[in-house]
């Protein structure tokens, strides 16, 4: 990746591996740190950056060119208790050099996510990057690759609409509810079901500014647990934004209610989102009819994303009740996915630009140590000459000499680098570098 180093990656993700394989490959922070420590004992190791999320586990490894990275990785994985065969079997993908970096850039941009364009992967990559740097120093190639990935991801998210529109049922349901009202802040919502989908929908509701949210679940303890978590998240967010929240006010924004109060809750809210695992409808026509009659002509919107359906079919026939199911939401999701896919060519162009920038850096990386030493040699000569003039003439004349020599150094370095880049072959370039290094090495400087 840099002079005499190579970047490689091994990936297990949702494209090639089923859930049970991804679960076996997953590495918690303890295993990640153990992997770094084990690899540090290997000859030829430069640096490593493991990334492990629910949908992917990837290992980006930088080594010297002459070592055998697969063998060292296999030993290290075995040491930390991870089945190494997973990363070398049919469910894994091996990449090397720019192919590995191209994949990393696509991951950082959300192009390889299960949900195209999802933004969470960016923070997950940054967490992995931060953890790896806490335990060892990243090599120049791996460091540059991940910095480029963060830049590429940011550009794709800001310069395209790859993340626009809801592409999950929970998010689509909340997005649809926004169309019912001028502002969600002045309205209330009822979440029926506190499972994973319900929790996701609740967070979407809060992010979109719902005035108040009530959670009802068969297990009141689970509803209370979700409510406490959501209120704590809201309080932390407000503090991060520089606001000191009124604790009682925060707690009132999300509340848990008992299951036997479901019918009563229906009459107190403006929109209902139901997502339980019940085998029969939990919201009946009688319950909704009673709720609508108490609303003084205000409509009640009901969103059903459960399978089987949570809301009885007859509810849709009631005046004042408007029911939307999975078919309605799927139409929204598919339209938004199509819109996101239309942004792929633009995203690909951004990634190609960032890869070209990295490739230019790689092509010149072998020049840097020698050119830096040459610069230091010239700067040393300049400082000696300026010091001589200052001692025997004046500060004004010394300053003028320094400006003149600085321009001279700039021209000499520019011409030298240009000549090195124009070498007819890698062998010629290396020979020229060796000659320059020999002429202006530290030993030559000391002898001067």
Topology:
Elements lengths: L4 E9 L5 H7 L3 H12 L4 E8 L3 E9 L4 H11 L13 E4 L1 H11 L11 H16 L4 H20 L9 H10 L9 E5 L3 H12 L4 E5 L3 H21 L6 H7 E4 L4 H5 L4 E4 L10 H9 L6 E5 L16 E4 L1 H16 L2 H21 L3 H25 L2 H27 L4 H14 L2 H6 L1
Describe this protein with a few key phrases.
alpha/beta; six-stranded parallel sheet; Beta Polymerase, domain 2; 448 residues; 3 domains; four-stranded antiparallel sheet; single chain; Rossmann fold
Gist of the model:
56% of the residues lie in helices and 13% in strands. The chain is of the alpha/beta class.
Structure write-up:
By secondary structure, the protein is an alpha/beta fold. It has three domains: 5-163 and 343-362, 2-Layer Sandwich (Beta Polymerase, domain 2); 169-338, Rossmann fold; 366-447. It is 56% helix and 13% strand. The protein has 18 helices and ten strands. It has helices at residues 19-25, 29-40, 69-79, 98-108, 120-135, 140-159, 169-178, 196-207, 220-240, 247-253, 262-266, 285-293, 326-341, 344-364, 368-392, 395-421, 426-439, 442-447, and strands spanning 5-13, 45-52, 56-64, 93-96, 188-192, 212-216, 254-257, 271-274, 300-304, 321-324. A six-stranded parallel β-sheet has the order 7-6-5-8-9-10. A hairpin with a 3-residue loop joins strand 2 and strand 3 (56-64). Helix 7 crosses helix 13 (326-341). The longest helix has 27 residues, at 395-421. It is elongated and about 100 Å long. The two termini are 35 Å apart.
């Amino acid at each position: 990746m840099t002079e005499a180093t190579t970047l490689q990656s091994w990936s297990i993700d949702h494209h090639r591996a089923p859930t049970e394989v991804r679960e076996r490959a997953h590495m918690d922070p303890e295993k990640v740190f153990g992997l770094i420590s084990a690899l540090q004992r290997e000859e030829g190791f430069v640096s490593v950056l493991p990334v492990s999320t629910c949908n992917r586990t990837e290992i980006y490894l930088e080594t010297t060119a002459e070592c055998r990275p697969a063998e060292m990785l296999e030993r290290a994985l075995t040491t930390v208790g991870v089945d190494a065969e997973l990363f070398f079997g049919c469910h894994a993908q091996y990449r090397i050099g720019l192919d590995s970096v191209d994949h990393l850039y696509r991951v950082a941009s959300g192009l390889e996510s299960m949900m195209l364009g999802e933004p969470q992967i960016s923070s997950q990559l940054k967490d992995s990057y931060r953890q790896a740097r806490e335990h060892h120093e990243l090599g120049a190639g791996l460091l540059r690759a991940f910095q480029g990935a963060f830049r590429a991801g940011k550009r794709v998210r800001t310069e395209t609409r790859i993340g626009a529109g809801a592409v999950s049922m929970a998010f689509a349901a909340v997005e649809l509810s926004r169309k019912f009202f001028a502002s969600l802040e002045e309205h209330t919502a009822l979440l029926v079901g506190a499972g994973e989908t319900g929790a996701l929908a609740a967070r979407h509701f809060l992010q979109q500014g719902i005035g108040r949210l009530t959670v009802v679940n068969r297990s009141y303890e689970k509803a209370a647990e979700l409510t406490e978590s959501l209120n704590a998240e809201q309080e932390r967010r407000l503090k991060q934004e520089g606001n000191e929240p009124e604790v009682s006010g925060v707690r009132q924004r999300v509340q848990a209610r008992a299951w036997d109060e479901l019918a009563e809750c229906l009459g107190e809210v403006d929109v209902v989102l139901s997502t339980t695992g019940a085998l029969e409808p939990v919201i009946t026509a009688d319950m909704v009819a009673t709720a609508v009659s108490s609303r003084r002509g205000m409509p009640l919107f009901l969103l059903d994303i459960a399978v089987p359906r949570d809301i009885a079919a007859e509810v849709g026939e009631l005046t004042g009740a408007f029911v939307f199911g999975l078919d309605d939401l799927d139409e929204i999701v598919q339209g938004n996915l199509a819109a996101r896919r239309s942004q792929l060519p633009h995203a690909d162009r951004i990634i190609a630009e960032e890869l070209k920038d990295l490739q230019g850096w790689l092509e010149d990386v072998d020049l840097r140590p020698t050119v830096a030493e040459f610069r230091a040699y010239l700067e040393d000569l300049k400082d000696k000459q300026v010091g001589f003039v200052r001692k025997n003439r004046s500060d004004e004349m010394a300053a003028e000499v320094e400006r003149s020599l600085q321009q001279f150094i700039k021209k000499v370095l520019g011409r030298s680098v240009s000549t090195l880049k124009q070498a007819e072959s890698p062998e010629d370039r290396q020979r020229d570098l060796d000659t320059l290094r020999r002429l202006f090495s530290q030993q030559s400087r000391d002898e001067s």
